[in-house]
Amino acid sequence: MSERLKLALGVLIALAAAFVPLIADGYWLSIAVTIMMYTALSTSWALFSGPTHYIALSTGAFYGIGGYLVATGMSDFEASFWTMAAIAPLVAIILAGAIGAATLRLSGVYFVIFTLGLAEMIRNLVSWVQNNFLGARGLYVLTDFDERHIYWMLLAVTVAVFLFGWLLGRSRTGFALRILGNDEEVARHVGIDTARTKILLFMSTGFFAALVGAIVAPRYYYIEPNVVFSPELSFLVVIMALLGGTRHLWGPLLGVVPFTMLWEAVSAAAPNATTMVLGAAFLMIVYLIPDGITGLAAKLIRTRSPS
Amino acid sequence: MTPGRTILEVQGLTKRFGGLIAVNDLSFDVREHEVMGIIGPNGSGKSTTINLISGALPATSGSIVLEGQDLTAARPHETARFGVSRTFQLVRILPALTVLENAVAGAVFGHKRRWGAEAAGFASGLLERVGLAEKAAQPVSSLTYIDQKRLELARALAGEPEILLLDEWLAGLNPSELQIGIDLIAALRAEGRTIVLVEHVMDAIRSLCDRCIVMNSGTKIAEGTPTEVLSDPHVIEAYLGTE
Asked: Which CATH architecture is the domain B1-83+163-243 placed in?
């Protein structure tokens, strides 16, 4: 498929997706919002973690920063939603840059542990600041938005993530990422500043996760740190991206849609079993389809064709 | 081509790993269009020297200057941009990229930078140069060992380096491949490229190098033409021991 055709197809799908709130409401619209949210998060996650193989479990931390800043800004400082939704991703990008500079020189395993601990640390820090200095335990995010508005805003972010990914794939930085994912030693010796490349991409995931967190905040109405700084969200993003496959820009989308449905069904039918399903799904993906649905499809096509 | 002005100056280069001195107060110059050999027994510090020049390891003391530019503290991507290219002792190919993309990787970020069709065209020319033109679209998993070595060489040449470091590039080749490999480096030499090579294959040293330095236990024990150094009693002693 030529690049132009892909682009046209992408525009068509995005336009079609924009009409979803006009035909779906209630339960299905709510599912569509969740799908759109995880599509933005997982696709953005895969742009960094796919080629570099650094499994970042920090999505929840940046998402939480987005949600929490909107909540505290609106409740404690009487800022508008738009001001806070603009500030939050910038705070996240600076934080991601600092974290990246400190950790991305480490090997992969340490990075995973660090990012997992990061979300917990920020959650506790925010709770502590909240309890000791800001007084209130919970914060209200009161806006005029309904699910449709949130959906359209998330669609805009998702389109931005895809556009960013598409441009990245055609850029020198995208090529540098592929090389360093293959062999970091070679990457350095052909002239790639590998630390800088990784930090830039990590900053982009922080930016998009905080933006999504900020947009989704009105959906909660009432926000406390324990709700938005969720380790579960970090794991869900990883699982959905891996299920879909990280080698193509649209790969994570193919994981987000089925897994969101499954997750909704499990949460409704057996709310106590969600953590178990999360673990089981993770094991099954790693053992059975390590390259995701897109990787599996590519393999089937290869084995069928005689060449 | 006759060697010209000095382009690489190594002065008092020392590398310590804890108590072990891998490279000890090493000094030498490399002139333009020259092929300079670094030889010596196993563990004498040859590969460490290559790693110091390319920035893979930081030097403990001493200095490395390439065309007036101090590279002593430079990291690998910086030395690459200043014009140092290298191959690796154990061949390193980018496995998920095609043959052409592997060569393009060297052209995009190195000393002379190219992008898009220009980079692909330049890399294709180098693949032809090393004898891989017909395999450009293949995945690298289909390459034989010598083809992988050729590809690594094409990638190293793709940034148009000022100086090319070959770390035992001929190692592991069978006798017929070895002759192909020597001919290929001889052709690069005839083009006037500046090359530093670490090598164990004496035939290659004799036929390719303008000058050699000989290292033993991290220290330079001889310098001169291959014929001179290989007849030097200190060198013979280092390789064969005393009677």
From this structure: 3-Layer(aba) Sandwich (3.40)
